[in-house]
Design a protein that fits this description.
It is built from six helices and no strands. It has 103 residues and is mostly helical. The protein has a single domain, classed as Alpha Horseshoe (Serine Threonine Protein Phosphatase 5, Tetratricopeptide repeat), CATH 1.25.40. Helix 5 runs antiparallel to helix 6. The N and C termini lie far apart (43 Å). The relative contact order is 0.11.
Amino acid sequence: MDRIAKINEYLITNPKDNFLRHALALELMKIGDDEQARSLFEALLMETPGYIGSYYHLAKLLEKLGERELAIGWYEKGMEEAKLVKDQHAYNELLAAYEDLVY
């Protein structure tokens, strides 16, 4: 069974599992299903803003899709959330990507 099918199988019994949702979005990106991946990342972050790892991937995906301003906004939100939970590593990673895009 491929990864996407396996993750979807797990999601049947755990539909709000953020790790699985994040993993599914990453797998969808790998096969070029960027819009579905975007929808998953956005839904995950709207429901669980503290799931820090998804901010970077969503913003990078938005950059790829030419949505520069939206990417900037998601980097900024991610940095705010990283500060709240005192995740300096995630904050630095988001800041570096943000600065690469903005400057």
